[in-house]
C-alpha cells in the first residue's frame, strides 16, 4: 500500500478549504483517508495553514510520500514554526 500525504477538498462552491491527510494512493481525492494531519484555508487573508508536524514527520518516517502541493505547505509550516 502506497501512502500519500495530500489535500482533500471540502467547503462550499467557490469557498474551499482543504484537509491535509494521509491516504492510500488508490483512494479518491475526497474519499477515505487514514489520518487527518492538518488544515489549509486559502480563502483567508493571509492563508491559514495548521499542521501537526509531529504526525507529518511520523508518516514520512513510515514511508509516506507528500504530493507537490502538500510538500510546499509542509515547508511553509516548518518556516512558521521556527
Describe the 3D structure.
- By secondary structure, the chain is an alpha+beta fold.
- It has a single domain, classed as Ribosomal protein S16 (S16 Ribosomal Protein, Chain: A, 2-Layer Sandwich), CATH 3.30.1320.10.
- It has helices at 53-61, 68-81; strands at residues 3-12, 15-24, 35-41, 48-51, 65-66.
- It has a five-stranded mixed β-sheet.
- A hairpin with a 2-residue loop joins β1 and β2 (15-24).
- The longest helix has 14 residues, at 68-81.
- It is flat, with a radius of gyration of 12 Å.
Fold-level CATH name = S16 Ribosomal Protein, Chain: A
Q: Secondary-structure element sequence?
A: EEEEHEH
Count of runs of 4 or more consecutive helical residues:
2
CATH top level? Alpha Beta
CATH superfamily: Ribosomal protein S16
Rg over C-alpha atoms, rounded to the nearest angstrom: 12 Å
Strand content: 35-45%
CATH architecture term: 2-Layer Sandwich
The rounded distance between the terminal residues' Cα atoms is 33 Å
Would you tell me the structural class of the helices and strands?
A: alpha+beta
Biggest sheet architecture: 5 strands, mixed
The whole-number mean of residue pLDDT values reads 94
Helix content: 25-40%
- Low-confidence region ranges: none
Strand order of the largest sheet: 4-3-2-1-5
- What is the domain total for the residues? 1
Amino acid at each position: 500500500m502506497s501512502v500519500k500525504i495530500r489535500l482533500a477538498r471540502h467547503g462550499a462552491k467557490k469557498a474551499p478549504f482543504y484537509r491535509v491527510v494521509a491516504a492510500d494512493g488508490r483512494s479518491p481525492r475526497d474519499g477515505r483517508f487514514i489520518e487527518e494531519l492538518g488544515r489549509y484555508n486559502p480563502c483567508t487573508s493571509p492563508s491559514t495553514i495548521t499542521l501537526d508536524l509531529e504526525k507529518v514527520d511520523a508518516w514520512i518516517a513510515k514511508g509516506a510520500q507528500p504530493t507537490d502541493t502538500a510538500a510546499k505547505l509542509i515547508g511553509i509550516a516548518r518556516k512558521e514554526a521556527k
